[in-house]
Amino acid sequence: MASNDNRLFLAFPADELAPPLTRLQHRLALPGRRIPLHQLHLTLHFLGQCSPEQQASLQQQLDRLPLPGFELDLDRLGCFPRAGVVWLGPSAPPPALMQLADTVELKCRALGVGKPHKAYRPHITLFRHCKTDTLPVIQPVHYRPQSLCLYRSTLTDQGPEYHCLQRWPLAE
User: Fold this and answer.
1) Which of 40, 77, 104, 122 could staple 14 via S-S, CB 3.0–4.6 A?
2) d(Cα 72, Cα 59) in Å, to the nearest integer?
3) Which domains does the chain have, with CATH numbers?
4) Is the pTM of this model over 0.85?
5) Closest by Cα among 102, 112, 84 to 45
6) Which residues are catalytic?
7) How far is CA 44 from CA 24, 28, 31, 82, in A?
8) What is the pLDDT of residues 47-68, one digit of tens each?
9) Would you call 59 helix, strand, or coil by DSSP?
10) What is the C-alpha to C-alpha distance for residues 172 and 170, in angstroms, rounded to an integer?
11) Whose CA is closest to 45, among 112, 118, 143, 115?
């Protein structure tokens, strides 16, 4: 596999949120591209291009890492204007998630993968290529992730395709 084919990220799959997030995407009716339901996830850490050795080392680290369960209320819409992304996230991220993000970032840094977070902002991307000035207040969507996945992102003409390479269950 060529190194440019191994663009990776860590995220919590959000398949069980497809019904409420579909309703939200339709209700918002924003310009831009809706993220397909099978690609919805709560990002933990973007790793970028990884060598097979870096990937194997990261997977070994994650095999040994305690992964706490947590719950959160996705109650806030936001925008990354420069990226043209509209997202849904928690206004009060749970401490267990924030601690896990810090731990994973330190492990990634030690392995030489990923870029340091300015400040981790947990979110689920709902739209891309979207420009909007105002976002409405929404009803919270409750979410309890069941697992963490290492995804490969392959860029295509139709947009990125995600494939879960490995899944780790979260503690109850």
Assistant:
1) 40
2) 26
3) 3-169 (3.90.1140.10)
4) yes
5) 102
6) 41, 123
7) 22, 25, 26, 20
8) 999 999 999 999 999 999 999 9
9) helix
10) 6
11) 115
